[in-house]
Amino acid sequence: MAEITLVEAVNQALAHELGADPRVILFGQDIGANGGVFRATDGLQKRFGAERVRDTPLAENMIAGIAVGMAVQGLRPVAEFQFMGFIYPGLDHILSHAARYRNRTRGRLSCPVVYRAPYGGGIHAPEHHSESTEAIFAHIPGLRVVVPSSPARAYGLLLAAIRDPDPVVFLEPKRIYRAVRQEVPDNGEALPLDRCFRLREGSDITLVAWGAALKETLQVAETLAEEGIEAEVIDPATLKPLDIHSIIDSLEKTGRCVVVHEAARFAGLGAEIIAQINEYAFDLLKAPVQRVTGYDTVMPYYRLEDEYLPDTGRILTAVRSTLDYPPGGGR
Amino acid sequence: MHKPRLHPVASFDINHLQYLDERGQASQALPDSATPDLLQSLYRQMNLARLVDQRAVQLQRTGQLGTYPSSLGQEAIGVAVGSAMATEDVYCPYYRETGALLERGVEIEEILAIWGGDERGQNYQHAPQDLPLCVPIATQLLHAAGVAFALQYRQQQMNEPARVAVTCAGDGATSKGDFYEALNLAGVWKLPVVFVINNNQWAISVSRGAQTASRTIAQKAIAAGIQGLQVDGNDVIAVRTAVADAVERARNGEGPALIEALTYRLCDHTTADDASRYCPPEELEQARAREPMERLGSYLRDQGYWDDGAESEMQREQAEVMERSLQAYRSKSPAPPTAMFDHLYARLPEALLEQYQELQARDSAGQESG
Fold first, then answer.
1. What is the ipTM of this complex?
2. Chain B CB contacts of A142 below 8 Å
3. Please, which residues have CB within 8 angstroms of residue B149's CB and are 6 or more apart in sequence?
């Protein structure tokens, strides 16, 4: 079996669902003949026809809005935004309607739509092409926010998102679109939503990260392993609703935790995770939980983006001070 | 001074449709569809819409209902739109919609429930495919475009019967991007959707003239490459004919249409508004003389299709219907507090279970102590 990249796994999942379910349709800007700016829909229009893989006029609010109408009338729309930085015109429809149709009509109508967008920095792109604003979406009741971090999880979680009866914002970490290759059987098997994935077992410290930030987080775990320190690495994958209990289970073993995300720190998801750890597991903690995040600044133009994004150095520093807590009398 | 030579590449006309003039006289031969039965039915439904509005405003004034948007003076539009649709078509309303909802089979008590702060009103028992009322301005127009795409797709790819989406918005909504985006997409994808604009001259306190420099709203269809028509929105026959024609064209795959229905808001924007702060009284008086109910009533009487006996019989019947609906509305017990979790997702996510149980426990404790 050929090994595929994360973006190819997205393509494979989309193709699988187009083949399996006639209600599934794809639309967005440049997704047809062009196959999407990142080629996530490469070849799909040719295979499944221009009726089901459609280029839209250039209006993000329109893309978000028509998806609502399509979904409440029985289709399974998968809408692509070219970059996360361009979703905001459509926020009105995602927040005020997609997330609320089921609730507003007491279950009479529902909105099973998937809004896909590449997100995150690190590809030397222009302004608005590099941000991580998942916390905005995670704050909205009625939505699911899902972030894959490997080809296998991209495939399995996207299948689950398309089949889910409720709206999903599916954020694809574009920095690792082509970073690794993996065998991903096209067997139509979805992975569970609302569940963390434990990517590495360990009993010394718990590292929580998602999307592209997992790349550096896993590297740090390897470095620590060489020193005999075993980090447990957890990928929440579904950021909303959050499976906090898997994180707590890990803390039972480790008692120490660092949360890593690209997004800005203030009111970022790290804050929510740490608040819940305090609520559920304060007594387990041997050290304050630390965050390694983007700064509370505008995502800089790309010459400074490496300074902004959490790197292995920053993660290691936070991990070491967490392990050494209290100073001088740590682990 | 050299003047460059120009030549026209596009030109257009916008037509206006009217059958009944302000005095209730036929200004042209009525369409065949305007049978006595239909006209009587439209008259009754307009009267019922007005009655529901009056009672709803009274309920609000006596603290039994939340904010309510009346349709006073605009009943012809909603009733005609609802009447022009087939049952299986899909209606995508905004919020000033009592006439259309009644025509679509939505119960009066459901309408009251919505404005009485209870989502259960949006769970229409007799219009299961229609969209709920939409409060943010113009967003329903894009939902209607999406619905129309789904209907077209299901017809073409799944061999289902041809159906049409119909949607309504006020004149203020035509200033929003959603309006232009919906028209644009409907044109380029040739969607089976009919957009109806209730141009009642006011968006709360901002007049139609302050909303757009365009001579008509109907002409905004031209830029999207779709049909645009202006109708006398106080002439229920004109609105119904225009919408029915547009619905049939859409059903036959001939694409979308925009219909601007000219009327006047003879009431406050909602019960939370006071139009005397901005609406010129003389303008209101003039508009009152053009209102739709008397116009049709006078025509029906002139033709011998209606008389005092029919009028009092209708008033008596509708008063009874209204009374029954009011009792049903008042006697409905509130949903349990945990209902706010019930339809958030298809299944309650585990992450919300604790909050759900907390509310449930508070509710049971409250019931025990209370």
1. 0.96
2. 344-345
3. A66, A69, A70, A75, B189, B191
